Structures are given as C-alpha cells and as structure tokens.
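Q: Could you fold this chain for me?
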Amino acid sequence: MAFERFWLTVPSRLFTADGGEDGLITIETTSGFKVKQKIKVSATGLPDQVLEVKRVVSPTRMYVGQLNRDLKDRSDLSTYTVVNNSSVSAQVQKRTGISREDHERAVYEEEPTLAKRVINVDQWGRFWSVDNPFPVQLSDGSIDIGTVNAELEVQLSHRDDYPDIGDIHDSVRIGGASGQEAEVTNNALDVNIKSNVAVDKTTPQILNVSAPLANNEYSFTIPANAKSYEVSCRGTARIQYAFISGQSGTNYKTIHAGYAEPEEGLNRNTALNIYFRVNKPNQIIEVKVWS
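A: Sure. Below is the predicted structure, expressed as structure tokens.
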C-alpha cells in the first residue's frame, strides 16, 4: 500500500467520553485520523453517520462535521455516548489532493526561521521540545556502546569555594522506592532515616459534589492532610476552577469533559478550598483524595 496516495484503514475506536454538541470526539488515540478524511460514527440503537474530520486537536480529541463543507462545520454528536458504545472508524481511501501553492505554503516556516520546514514534528504536528520530548525506549537486554573515551569530573562538596575558589556545593538526596530518605544530622556520622510524607499515601477518599446549576459557583474542600487529589466531571460539562472565591468565572483553570486534573506530592497542614463552575446543569464533580 502506497502511503503517498492513500489513507490506511483506522479500525473502530470506542469513545472515551460522550460526543460533543460541537462535533468533539474523544478516543484513546487519534493516531491515523487526518483532516478531510471520511469517517463513520456508530452507536448501539443509533444510525451510522458518515462524516469528515475537520480538525485533530490532540492525541485523544478531534472535531468532525458534514462531508464536503467548510472546515469550521461541526456535527452534533451529543446523542453518541459512552453508554451506547459509540465508536469511530475509517476505511482505506484516497488522500485529499492539494494544489502546488497550498503545498508550498504548508511547508514554509515563518520568520525568524524563514525556510521550507525541515523541523521534525510528531504525528499530530507538534514540535519536539522539552514539553513534548522525542520518545526513546530501550528494550530489555544488553546494549554494547563500545569504547568511549571521556573525562567525567564529579565534585560533591559540603561547602562552597572548596577545594577550589568558585566551586559550588552539590546537594545529594539518597532514598528508595518506599519514600524514605537519608538525613545527615549535625554529627556527620549519624545518619537518620526520615519518611517522605508527600509520597506515603495510605487512605483514599471519594467526594461527589453536586452542581445543579450551570455557570454558578460551587466549592469543595481538600482535607489538610491530603497528599494528592484528582478532579473530573462525571458528565459532559467543562469545569472552570479557582482557589479564590468568585474567580471561577474570571481567573480560572479549565478541565475539559472527559479529562481529569491531578495534583500530586502535596505536603500541607491546612485545608484547601476549591471553587468551581460548570457550563451545563445537573452535573456531578468527582474528587479523589489520598491522605
């Protein structure tokens, strides 16, 4: 099969969140789906819909609409839910043709690069960076690198400017998977083991917070001894949350439908109030807390 001429088959993939009124589909991976590709949306008890990919926005989300319409067109998929086993798939098909002018424009990189693009991107068109690192996996077994001649200088000093002027001391942490770390006391030979309480999680707690009205601020409290928490919406609403009362509608962080917001490694001695609102009525906010 020539990849240059055809889009290959994308097998049926189940929705991981209910379909959106704005044509949003959330699945485990959007890999293989391309803009202008013809797709089929299916569900138990509902007719199949033949639609078109309008935009792939992330590794798990894409927008779809009617065939042969503007890329801004969107189809209402709110009746295609996780409960009725909604899925999306695509058959092998010819790629959409583009003009020479469109091709030249697509590969041109704007100032300050000013060049035809030869910069590597991932399959969703995102540049490799610190926030999007190139994936490298070493398989089990041995790796023979060969002879490497190099000079490695390591200085672990307990104070600056020693042994040479300009040396900056290093801080070394010694610990294990259990979350314990070695602590050196005033007597350098006396080493005590301290527990890293931010990692030692033992007690789970589930909070279900009702939000009956859309765009109305509600709140819940994370206990003072919490080590981590995670917030998500049970329904299809978007959550806007803040840490100050009254700011869930002005200065907030968004949790989109089908996503969860985790916070790890907490080490607090006071409770934390979280204020939120949703864009749809009759929603349940799910909060998982570990202490």
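A (continued): The chain has a mean pLDDT of 85.
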